[in-house]
Amino acid sequence: MLAMDQGVVEEWLSEFKTLPDNAVSTYAASLKDKGALVPALYKVMRENYSDLLEPVCHQLFEFYRSGEPQLQRFTLQFLPELLWSLLSVSAARDPHTSGCIEALLLGIYNLEIVDKDGQSKTLSFTVPSLSKPSVYHEPSAIGSIALTEGALANHGLSRVVYSGPHLQRETFTAQNRFEVLTFLLLCYNAALSYMTSTSLQSLCQLSSRVCICGYPRQQIRRYKGISTRLTVTSEFLVQLITGIHYAVCNGEVELGSKALDDVLYRAQLELFPEALLVGNAIKSSLHGAALKSNNKEGARSIQVEITPTSSRISRNAVTSLSIRGHRWKRHESQEVSVDSEAAAGGVAIPEISVTGVGGERMANGDSLRPRPDGRAQPDCDPLGATSEVSLDPRGHDSGTRGQEVRRQKSVRRMVENEGSGSASTGRSQY
User: Fold this and answer.
1) Which of 38, 44, 133, 146 sits most deeply, having the most CB atoms within 10 A of its CB?
2) What is the pTM of this model?
3) pLDDT per residue over 286-328, tens digit each?
4) What sign has the CA pseudo-torsion 426, 427, 429, 430?
5) Which is it for strands 159-163 and 123-127: parallel, antiparallel or unpaired?
């Protein structure tokens, strides 16, 4: 350890002891401006035989016992490094160098399991329902959920899981070690949003080292630390995965992904179903997900679908109104197509009403036009013959043939009125 780092730590140890009670909050807010302090404290914790380790652990416990939230979070940021120091020393069977670290961790644990009055407290957690949207899922993306009687009975009900009360511990044993460490990680994960990038990196390194030490993957990772296998529990791995998930989404993509693979590797070897379920679920959600912001310092997030605040109706919903509208559009399109084809052929076809709105329908297909006196009058040419309209829109030849048919009919009726004797003469003159 360099003399400069040692001087920074010694100054930090001395200035807190002389602070009055009313200046603790101001001092807690000024700790973030001391950039050289945190790296120096990490160096002290990594040197188990350092003379400054014991006073540093005592100072951190005083921070946590003060009740100031900023001082408590300042202590919690070193928790992953303290956990690894304890586990590595325990694996090396040298407990005399970890006494101050054990005292610090047990002190934090005993403070967290009781309330302000000193009574044991019980933590409660609400399990989200898949039928309701959350920041992690959308019910529409899962698929249709069968509306059974049991599902309807449980709809809207919240399942609450309780943790505690926890027993106070005075020393670490093989039976209670991971029970205490798991609870401490739970407290650390509750303050993840306040942790620095250095603390998140330390958490990922802790996860990888604990899971691969003593296994063949240690050679692949080229880690030259202890080679003794460390005993873990499924609950401890689940808390590690929770912190890793946050680290991956907040700048530590490479280191966090490697730590997640190592935890799943150990969970597969130990056959831990809870750790495998949570780890594989997080790995699947991160696979192919677009992480915003390429800036390592900025926060990243996973893109999810958000439930709209106002209710909306699908545009493709089939209703009686949409069916009627579809029919009207179909009739309009047919009329427009007939008019366009007629215009292309050069013959203008008059509009014929087929609904009986514009005029009445006659037996032979002719329409009646309303007269000024209110009676209907058929369409007739000046000679009195009823004109017929050709509905064939095939071009000029069809229109000429229709006009010829109308002329022949009108001439035939005129000849019949004059008499059968002069019918042949009228045809020849024409």
Assistant:
1) 44
2) 0.64
3) 865 545 444 455 455 555 555 554 444 445 555 556 666 655 5
4) positive
5) antiparallel
